[in-house]
């Protein structure tokens, strides 16, 4: 069995990009909307302080999750590129999009269907994952 050629630096960069994107997406870009949709805009200062206690752990786990996602996407990109007649950033965008459509979109819908979350919140969160996977795809395709 032959090992799949991966650029681990590109995977690491994807993890860093994920944290930066999340900080922007859930901060200045959509932060107020996200907090409102989560119901966090109604928290008192003590509740907000309690919620912030686990942020370092949450960021660390999100970073690890992003590394896993980038690692798996890098594998998918290698396999997809060998069967598609496309390469470079187009291969990255295409692979990122199809992974989002086939895996992220259906799985995250359970937040609405069973978790009583709104479609607006779902759209905001799934949009983040779409942008994340597209960015990962481009990084991995061009640098992988």
UniProtKB/TrEMBL annotation:
List, alphabetically, the Pfam families matched: DUF1761
**What high-level taxonomic lineage is stated for the organism?**
Bacteria, Candidatus Doudnaibacteriota
Keyword Membrane appears in the UniProt entry: yes
Q: Name the domain of life.
A: Bacteria
For this UniProt record, the keywords arranged alphabetically read as follows:
Membrane, Transmembrane, Transmembrane helix
Segments crossing the lipid bilayer: 6-26, 58-77, 97-114, 126-143
Task: Please give the name of this protein.
Answer: DUF1761 domain-containing protein
Q: Where does this protein come from, organism-wise?
A: Candidatus Doudnabacteria bacterium RIFCSPHIGHO2_01_FULL_46_24
């Amino acid at each position: 069995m032959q090992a799949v050629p991966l650029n681990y630096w590109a995977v690491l960069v994807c993890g860093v990009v994920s944290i930066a994107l999340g900080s922007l997406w859930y901060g200045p870009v959509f932060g107020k909307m996200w907090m409102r949709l989560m119901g966090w805009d109604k928290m008192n200062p003590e509740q907000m302080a309690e919620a912030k206690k686990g942020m370092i752990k949450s960021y660390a786990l999100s970073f690890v999750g992003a590394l896993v996602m980038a690692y798996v996407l890098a594998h998918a990109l290698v396999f997809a590129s060998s069967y598609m007649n496309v390469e470079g950033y187009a291969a990255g965008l295409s692979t990122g999009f199809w992974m989002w459509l086939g895996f992220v979109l259906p799985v995250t819908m359970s937040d609405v269907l069973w978790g009583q979350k709104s479609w607006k919140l779902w759209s905001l969160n799934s949009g983040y994952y779409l942008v994340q996977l597209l960015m990962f795809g481009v990084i991995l395709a061009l640098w992988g």
